[in-house]
Amino acid sequence: ARRHDARAARMATTTATTGSTRSRGCAIHDCSRACASRRRGRGAPSRMYGVEGRRAPAPAAARLAARARVDVWTDVQLPFDDDTSARFMNEYWQKKPLLIRGAIRDFKPPLDGNEIAGVACEEDSSARLFVRRGDDDASWEKTLGPFSEENLTSLPTDKPWSLIVNDLDSQVESIGDLLELFSCFPRWRIADIQASVSPDGGGVGPHTDHFDVFLLQAEGEKRWSVASNEAYWPDNDKAFVSDCAIRVLKEFTEDDSFVLVPGDMLYLPPKVAHNGVAVNSTPGVSVTLSIGFLAPTIDELVLSYTSQATEKVKGSRWSDPWLKPVEDIGAISAESVSFASEMLKRTYPKNDAEVARWFGCHVTARTGDEVEEEDSGGVSVEELLGEWEHSALVAREDLRFAFIDQVGDGSLKNALFFCEWRVL
To answer: Residue 76: its pLDDT value, please?
Structure first.
């Protein structure tokens, strides 16, 4: 289930005849120092150079509502206790941003920027590289990983760039362990932990997202600017630069801004515009860990449900033995419409228990997984309990688990346990 230990070993393999130790995927020039430093338990001195001191371009003024300052907590740490969790949910969750200073005191990130770059070189990584090649907003260039060491050691020193690596929680055990700090949220709501690695001046430009996110500063520093403005909402296509590799706002005027240092955390609800720019990190890099939450669209949910619901009518075809001669060849009879309606209704859920079986599969599926009906030849409850008598289940962090033990209409007779889009 865990491949990071083996990955770390491969990243520290020796090169041919020189006898020097090279990190297979570090985005630095002196890979041996990075790996050796990590083995001694210290952060590695990075050489991911960038545009030192370069600030984000100042866009033209936008039409703004009243400027809103972001609330700041200074006496709260993760994980939240019960009272803090309730206060956060009531006052901030999906309502307004919150800055938590020292959310993790004396935070030492599980991986530094060099090691994250190493993960981006692995074949099963989900990595992207963004480089702004020119002065205009349309000059952003996106490259998909995995990357070679040469790709990452030859990044420009005079242009802003950012390396993004997704799904780190499923690839690196120590990163996945950070989710324990967010125990007030159901685990199925969390999409993944993403890392953003940038030199001074680097970032991905001002933008908005459809989902909730916690931005945890892990290494170096980053200046965040935020704005709660309907003009910047992600559905407003006119607000974004056209013909650009990434979604960047044409104009962005901040309501508030602040610099995050390691251990600080910023919460952003959906649709709040934000711009993060690495600062004060030379000669190293700025690393931000993003804990992002699922936000499926309604049409995604409907398509997901109907794709598995069609199993109920698989093989059925239109049949109309009641057909009568027509006076107008272009007419669709009321009987035909009623029959079509009945065919659709056959796929509707009969109760909440049916919805629960689909929904648990859907929310435990990772991107690209297909939701399928459970295998009727699976392990029975009796067989599972028999094997469990002197054993225990151990959750793999690279898989998603969830359970449902009750539904609103009381139609669920037995609890359902889900793992990676399957019901067990």
So the answer is: 97
For 55-74, letters b (16+ CB in 10 Å) and e give ebeebeebebeeebebeebe
Asked if residue 253 has pLDDT above 80, the reply is: yes
Tokens 């907590």 belong to residue: 73
CA distance 225 to 57: 12
User: Is it the case that residue 143 has pLDDT exceeding 70?
Assistant: yes
Beta bridge mates, 419: 401, 422
Q: How far is CA 345 from CA 52, 123, 240, 335, 372, in A?
A: 62, 45, 41, 15, 20
Q: Are 200 and 278 in contact (CB under 8 A)?
A: yes
Q: How do beta strands 221-227 and 273-279 pair?
A: antiparallel
Paired tokens of 38: 């990590």
Q: Where are the alpha helices (DSSP H) in 148-224?
A: 149-153, 168-171, 173-176
Strands 98-100 and 71-73 turn out to be parallel
Closest CA to 225 of 316, 357, 352, 99: 99
| Tokens representing residue 249 in the block | 């706002």
What's CA 34's distance to the chain center, in Å?
Answer: 27
pLDDT band at 43 (very low <50, low <70, confident <90, very high): very low
pLDDT in tens, 201-239: 999 999 999 999 999 999 999 999 999 999 999 999 999
What is the distance between the alpha carbons of residues 110 and 114, in angstroms, rounded to a whole number? 12
Our CA dihedral for 168, 396, 401, 212, rounded to 10 degrees, sits at: -20
Q: How far is CA 220 from CA 46, 109, 192, 238, 262, in A?
A: 11, 11, 22, 34, 7
Residues 187, 402: Cα–Cα separation, whole Å: 8
**In the chain, what percentage of residues exceed pLDDT 90?**
65
Is residue 229 a contact partner of residue 273, using CB atoms and an 8 Å limit?
A: yes
Confidence of residue 25 (pLDDT cuts 50, 70, 90): very low
